Amino acid sequence: MSDKIKFIANSITKEQLLSLYKNMLKPRLIEEKMLILLRQGKISKWFSGIGQEAISIGVTAALEEDEYILPMHRNLGVFTSRDIPLYRLFSQWQGKMNGFTKGRDRSFHFGTQEYHIVGMISHLGPQLGIADGIALANKLKKNNKVCAVFTGEGGTSEGDFHEALNVASVWSLPVLFCVENNGYGLSTPTSEQFNCKNIADKGIGYGMESHIIDGNNILEVYAKVSEIAASIRKKPRPVLLEFKTFRMRGHEEASGTKYVAAETLEFWAKKDPLENYITFLKKKKILTTAIETAYKEEITKEISEHLEIAYSEEKITPNLETELKDVFKEYQYEEIQPSATTKNIRFVDAISEGLEQSMQKHNDLVIMGQDVAEYGGVFKITDGFVEKFGKERVRNTPICESAIVSAAYGLSVSGIKAVVEMQFADFVSSGFNPVVNLLAKSHYRWQQNADIVVRMPCGAGVGAGPFHSQTNEAWFTKTPGLKVVYPAFPQDAKGLLIAAINDPNPVLFFEHKGLYRSIYKDVPENYFTTEIGKAAVLKEGKDVTIISYGAAIHWVLEYLENNAAVSADLIDLRTLQPLDTETIYASVKKTGKVILVQEDSLFGGISSDISALIHENCFESLDAPVRRVASLETPIPFEPNLEKQYLGKNRLEKTIKELLNY
Ligand SMILES: Cc1ncc(C[n+]2csc(CCOP(=O)(O)OP(=O)(O)O)c2C)c(N)n1
Question: Which residue's CA is the nearest one to ligand 1's atom 1?
């Protein structure tokens, strides 16, 4: 590779040439100032993009203002090119209200709908799947928009990269995947990161057009990306772009560059994108020293003034109520009454009906999942949906849970609701990161809701073993920002699913597979809602409160049927997060004895927390220690007798007896 940059201006006007210069100069000057402030301890971490500015600037300049860009931690130029007032950026870095996250997230971990920017989460990879979702929304809206997402070459090693490119290619999504190959991922050189010559070569494997671009040549970046973006707008498709560049400073300022050879740094210093461009513009007599000085003075003044604004802004005063409230997007729950006309249907049919009526109600709602289209899903819940709603809205996905959850979030960013079907709840572990880090934290971080329902066919009793029978709700009830719904009856399943889809927040919707085809009930035929967060008192008694949910409710019902003398309040939680503590406490205060029954293994299950809450809030009313019935502390086995031993059901009777006799 040569250390020379060959600039070709072609039809780019003089004004554009100068504008590209000014746009590159701005992040450079901001960074130089930030490095000083960092040394003075006035800002926290800093990730430098010095030497990589041409990429951010060129790509942003090639996109239209309302086309989404998804930058990473070295793309200051994206934010400044979109003309975000600098004081807002400074306030963001200082954790102040004029920033974008109310002090809740640092550096570039934020987005802004106002400027069509979706910022990263620390985990890097999910960013790529979000772009798929935004591009899918653009495609569905037929608005001829492209979106651009950034990643470093280190990030391309994550499974998310593979998944996102694969999905984008299979679905022909209009995304520009921009890889900034800057030589190192933290201290790891490219030779230890991937074993192919160019990252662009990977395009072939995805059936995707790809290009290598000199990331230090602003004119090459701008011209090529403009041309490719224009072509994508006409013919939607993903394109992989590898920008060759170099990270001139440490991963973050504190970590330095000791591990980089001096001659490598010297080589790349000669290729500095800004200095070289200045030389070119001066040679062409486009940039004069007077203009250069004027620009520098103007930007330096702007930086100083805006820093003053940010400094003079008061620090955030913690407000407990606001912190708690902002975890979810507020919305007005609409109660729609169930009709008097009913049909005797199974649990599985009720879910299917709720889903179908929601597809009719929200005419842009998208369902995504493995085999959900023509095949109807492995449980046949979406059977016939393709004929009714078309393949655009009922989407078969590749086996890419992480990218699909991220893509659902991208749809939400674009104002479209999504239902994601996990083929089995067990497989959510492959999409766990975006669920708990992206969807759950989004509204709290930057007031962007994640309007997504993740359907979770779960549970035991079907002899399916450790990877097809788990009931893993506790993985999510512990994560602030997620709602967790777990119905036990067909009517609740339908009403709660409709309510979950109407709720603009992320909902994990657990559907017990053992109930799918074993329970028939009369279910209202209309489109109705059942409120999330409200438990149901199924039976009223005086001696004991039994609290349960999902399939375990049916164990308790069976027990009570066979033990008519036991006078119990039976509470079906229906929603685990948010929890209906009011109903729980009222019952406990009446009976004084409590037993919690869950299908999940004991330790760390929701019952443990409910038990703690009861002890903390109803201690004086208790006549006995709270008891928990749950499954064994083993993975769930498949052989029927082993599974039976595993499940708490066979310990229910004994525990209730002990409690009643206490
Ligand atoms: C999933 C995950 N693993 C590890 C990290 C720690 N980490 C943050 S940035 C980084 C290097 C990223 O390298 P690259 O993608 O090449 O981007 P660059 O920093 O070079 O711009 C690492 C290892 C992380 N943030 N997320």
Answer: 123
